[in-house]
Amino acid sequence: MTRRLWIIVGLGVVAVLVSGALALDERRPVHQPEPSATGGVYSTPEWLTMQQRYGAGVRMIVSMAPMSVLESHGCLVVLRGLTHVATVCRPTAALRVFTWRSGEFTNVVGVTPTSVASVVVRGGGEAYGAALMQVARTRVFATSFRHLRTLTAADVHGRVVERLRVH
């Protein structure tokens, strides 16, 4: 065999070995991070505590640090961090809100009955509709608003059923 043929055979053997090594490397499982049931709001030990406290079927609905709303057995559980604030199974008021300040912003987590079709947030000369998420027999919303003054709940016909002033 000529020198040129030896070089071609050698390069062929190297190519086969490299492609085999790459094929084996492709088969190795890639580490995937585990999805979090809470979107990273609570650590795994904290979430296990929530499951012990509120049941294995508990699920995160909305979180706006430090407040969270969980759903368990058809009821909503409102938390401030890990501390229980309220449980709402069938809201009687058109607006049940939990507020806290963050600088010039007022943050709101709210619960309404399903008879409420819209919640309007007003302040500083502006008005916005809050996104309502239906959960069990309620609707939930979370918003942050600069210079918040009022929250207005209306039914499907546009009639105001409750107006709250926020200080």
What's the quick description here?
This protein is an alpha+beta fold.
Give a description of the structure.
By secondary structure, this protein is of the alpha+beta class. 22% of the residues lie in helices and 44% in strands. The strands form 3 sheets. The chain has a 4-stranded antiparallel beta sheet with strand order 1-2-3-4, with no helix packed on it. The chain has a 4-stranded antiparallel beta sheet with strand order 5-6-10-9, with no helix packed on it. The chain has a 4-stranded antiparallel beta sheet with strand order 8-7-11-12, with no helix packed on it. β2 and β3 form a beta hairpin. The chain is elongated. The N and C termini lie far apart (93 Å). The relative contact order is 0.12. The model has no long low-confidence stretch (mean pLDDT 86).
Please mark out the parts with pLDDT under 50 across 5 or more consecutive residues, or reply none. Answer: none
Mean pLDDT: 86
Instruction: Describe the sheet with the most strands.
Output: 4 strands, antiparallel
Query: How would you classify the helix and strand content by structural class?
Result: alpha+beta
Shape: elongated
Order of helices and strands: HHEEEEEEEEEEEE
Give the N-to-C terminal Cα separation.
93 Å
Number of helices: 2
Q: Percent of residues in helical segments?
A: 10-25%
Number of strands: 12
For the biggest β-sheet, the strand order reads 1-2-3-4
Estimate the strand proportion.
Answer: 35-45%
Features:
alpha+beta, elongated, 167 residues, 4-stranded antiparallel beta sheet
